[in-house]
Amino acid sequence: MPARFRRGEQTPAAPAAPRRLYPCGVSDQHQLTPELLLELYSRGYFVMADPPTRGPRVLRVYRPKVRAILPLEPGGLHVPRTVARLARRGRFRLTCDRAFREVMSGCAAVRPERGGAAGSWISDEMIDAYTALHELGHAHSIEAWRGFEGRDTLVGGIYGVSIGAAFFAESMFCRPEWGGSGASSVCLVTLARHLQQIGFRLLDVQMVNPHTARFGVVEVSDESFAKRLGEAVCAPVAWTPLSDQ
């Protein structure tokens, strides 16, 4: 069944979301498609689903008044010592775009034993839509693997959307119980360094938290974000796959 969309928080100065989502300014039913995702992200919106505890999985679009980004300029990325040590030791085997759906599913998994929320904001319909976007070359993942119980196991990862020279990081996860402590942090640093190398101009992380702040994430006004976004999505830069490490 097509998801129901509602407008989430946005600044009054933000460009309007595509009108077909809100013909009456309240809600409507529409299929979440790759084309729609590209339109939303290019305008600065991102999508989150209501937790299943609230009933039907309503998908909401958000454009916060303050946006968090990880600066890609020299000196913008800060690598905590513990993360740098993990990366140097080669604890994880890193790949790119080898298990996109699995990474998204890992991010969507709820882990109450680690203080997880009552329900994930990533719905099954979102996983299907973003995987379709990945197959079109506009969504990517970095995966961390490690041997566990005799198998090469996915123990962490990060995924997001790519348009022009802008990357919109959506979520990341790790599985400490499988030897994946710190895997998501290594993936984030690997992603940021890769984006710097291939000439990307914007790494959006949506909202800052104590964990991402350790890596140099800063908050910018919606006006500043809109300027950065407009320049980045129009830049003649394309995603280049990361070599396996």
What is the 3D shape? globular
Strand content: 25-35%
The structural class is alpha+beta
Oligomer: single chain
Main beta-sheet annotation: 7 strands, mixed
The percent range for helix content is: 25-40%
CATH topology of the largest domain: Aminopeptidase
Mind telling me which CATH architecture of the largest domain this is?
A: 3-Layer(aba) Sandwich
Number of strands: 11
Our count of domains comes out at 2
List keywords for this structure.
7 helices; 29% helix; Aminopeptidase; alpha+beta; 245 residues; single chain; disordered N terminus; four-stranded mixed beta sheet; seven-stranded mixed beta sheet; 29% strand
Describe the structure.
The protein is of the alpha+beta class and 245 residues long. The chain has two domains: 62 residues, no CATH class; 166 residues, 3-Layer(aba) Sandwich (Aminopeptidase), CATH 3.40.630. It is 29% helix and 29% strand. The chain has seven helices and eleven strands. The strands form two sheets. The chain has a seven-stranded mixed β-sheet with strand order 6-7-8-9-10-5-11, with helices on both faces. The chain has a four-stranded mixed β-sheet with strand order 2-1-4-3, with helices on one face. A hairpin with a 2-residue loop joins β7 and β8. α1 crosses α4 and α3 runs antiparallel to α4. The protein is globular and about 45 Å long. The N terminus is likely disordered.
